[in-house]
């Protein structure tokens, strides 16, 4: 949120601090779903299918929270802010944010363990495609859904 507030400057509103408790609520739900949705695919094809659905659901969820002006989790808010500042939209913002996190994680792993840890093909696919899902979703649905919700949009 610090980076988001720096990027937004005076545009950062006090209510955006609600992202802090929202991140805690999100963490609780992640833990609950992780405990009770014990999905452990066996084959590579099954793993890729689960990853595909996870990327799609994550992208749609992030875009919907931001588009509907609900309190997003801090990472999604930062991705939207990056996209806005670049003039490219949340999809590109998510890609820039994810690539930055991916590279930072790789560097930290190399510095402290002398090899890359925790970055596999699933991470690479998520980094590439979550932002693309957001971009496609927003291209077709952002303005119609905001209009239906009575949220004014700038065209």
Q: Oligomeric status of the shown chains?
A: single chain
Quick one: overall form? globular
Tell me the span between the first and last alpha carbons: 27 Å
In this structure, how is the largest beta sheet organized? none
Strand content: under 5%
How much helical structure, as a percent, in the residues?
A: over 70%
How many domains would you count in the coordinates?
1
Query: Count the helices. How many?
Result: 6
What do the pLDDT scores average to?
95
Kindly state the number of beta strands.
0
SSE order, as H and E? HHHHHH
Low-confidence stretches: none
Q: Nearest-angstrom radius of gyration?
A: 17 Å
Secondary structural class:
mainly alpha
Helix and strand topology:
Layout: H1 2-8, H2 19-36, H3 44-67, H4 74-86, H5 90-113, H6 121-149
Helix pairs in contact: 1-4, 3-6, 4-5, 5-6
Give structural notes.
It contains six helices and no strands. Helix 1 packs parallel to helix 4 and helix 4 crosses helix 5. The protein is globular and about 45 Å long. 74% of the residues lie in helices and 0% in strands. The chain has one domain. The model has no long low-confidence stretch (mean pLDDT 95). It is mostly helical and 155 residues long.
């Amino acid at each position: 949120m610090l980076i988001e507030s720096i990027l937004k400057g005076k545009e950062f509103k006090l209510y955006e601090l609600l992202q802090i408790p929202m991140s805690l609520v999100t963490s609780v739900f992640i833990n609950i779903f992780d405990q009770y949705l014990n999905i452990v695919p066996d084959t590579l094809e099954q793993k890729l299918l689960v990853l595909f659905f996870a990327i799609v659901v994550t992208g749609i969820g992030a875009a919907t929270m931001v588009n509907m002006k609900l309190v997003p989790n801090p990472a999604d808010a930062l991705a939207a802010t990056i996209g806005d500042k670049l003039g490219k939209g949340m999809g590109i913002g998510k890609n820039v944010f994810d690539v930055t996190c991916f590279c930072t994680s790789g560097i930290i792993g190399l510095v402290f363990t002398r090899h890359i840890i925790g970055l596999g093909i699933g991470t690479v696919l998520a980094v590439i495609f979550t932002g693309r899902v957001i971009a496609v979703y927003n291209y077709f649905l952002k303005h119609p859904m905001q209009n239906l919700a009575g949220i004014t949009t700038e065209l």
